[in-house]
Amino acid sequence: MLPITAILLAGVFLVSIIALLVLIWSISSGQFSMGPGSSRVIFYRADGRRIEDPASTSENREQLQQLLVDSEERLPPQPPPETNDPASRRESDASTARSVRYLLGSACFWLIAGSFFGLAASLKFNFPDWLNRDYEFTFGVFRSLHLNLVIYGWVSMAGMGVSLWLIPRLLKNRLRSDFLALVGTHVWNLALVIGTFSLFAGLTDGIEWLEFPWQTDLLFAIGGALIGMPILLCIKRRRVDHLYVSVWYIGAAFVWFPFLFIVANLPIYEGVQHAIVNWWYAHNVLGLWITPFGLAAAYYFIPKVIGKPIYSYQLSLLGFWALALFYSQVGLHHLIGGPVPTWLVSLSVVSSIMMVVPVIAVAINHHRTMWGSFKAMKLSPTLLFIVTGAIMYTIVSLQGSAQSLRIVNTTTHFTHATVAHAHLGVYGFASFILFGSIYFIFPRLSGRNWISQRLITTHYVLSLTGIVLYGGVFFYGGVVQGLQMQDGANAFSEIVASTKPYLWLRTVAGALMTLGHLVFVGHMWWVWYAPRSARSFTPLPIEGGAA
User: Fold this and answer.
1) 252, pLDDT greater than 60
2) Is the overall model pTM greater than 0.90, yes or no?
């Protein structure tokens, strides 16, 4: 155990030194600039005081524009000089079209596949004898496929697609070597296909969040590196002096994830060590891979749609660096009560409580930016989904910090409350922000309008109802389950039986979310194949003619 622990500690120390050097560079190069121009790099001079949401109808965009005009807050008069070329936005969008379309299209395919496997796994709780004769159709296979296809298929690919689209816009440059992203997406999809068939065949590493065989993991590493390379090249050749906070989140995600993925897949762990590394990795995938994608998108789209900068650029940087500092050790509170060193679990609990700092910083920033503009959510599908996701981020993060406390964890551990909490984060926070981002991006990629605002509203209502039932009522059922298990007078079989109503509720919630996904993907398909006269995208005109 000592050699492996020494290697891991040495690796963490090396990464810390690199991070310190990056911090020193960022301070010396003015990346911590708090001047008025720092929060305005996302705007072009041609934007003036105009809103931007391609997902809205022309009428709704005009009403959004009027809300901005009527608002007391105004966009400061002049963005920094490097943001003044309206043609660069068209150039940026055109350079990402092929690769982003492929990534988002793939993500939507895996979303549908993962949703059906999740619904099937949920039905197994209600009908234990359903499809129980063959290994391929057991709960273990369905559940593993649901988890991996949603995390590595839907959330990861959608997050990478949104990031690939954002980076050139934020850096006022075109995406270079986009063919690398196309090849990387092919490799990533190949890994998912091979991994899916491997799980059906019973070939698995048997570790939660790392079920795919190690041969498949090599393909993920290659595919992720190829997708991330154009982003790093774009950062290197940027046309702006200041890196907006979204760039920090995206760049950090593509640095953190390879380190996490490679370390977690090293074939050197056994027993308790493997459990420690497993939960270190699983939680960090949520916080250092998925969370940066969501927050980067929120920091761009919220101010972009309502036409005014974020409330406090200082808070945005505080939130990023606090996430980088505190999150890496939070996962081990899942092992409270297990045969692991007490100091290790205590370190995780302290880190989890310290996560309140970046969460509050982000919450204040997002919600204060929206202050006075919440009416715009009725007119903007992008805002509707993204602001809902931002609210979910605050709720699930504070909930997670509370659940790390031993006094709370003894009740929620080994119950359905943990499952509900995980879904509230991955779906309520990350997926809602990704949905909103795609509603904004897709018309820019395709030159086609969304056909039906009613379908967008239907998607929102189905998904929101599903996650509220899942993350709220099902969580409550898990707390009741935990309290019952603490009472020695209750037979375990009786406790299991008492969870049946909540398990049915879980299935209903899953069915609603799956139906919402079908509406979402079906709408995209309809837009793409509808006659051009019904789908031509005409943006609200702005000075300079930039679209």
Assistant:
1) yes
2) yes
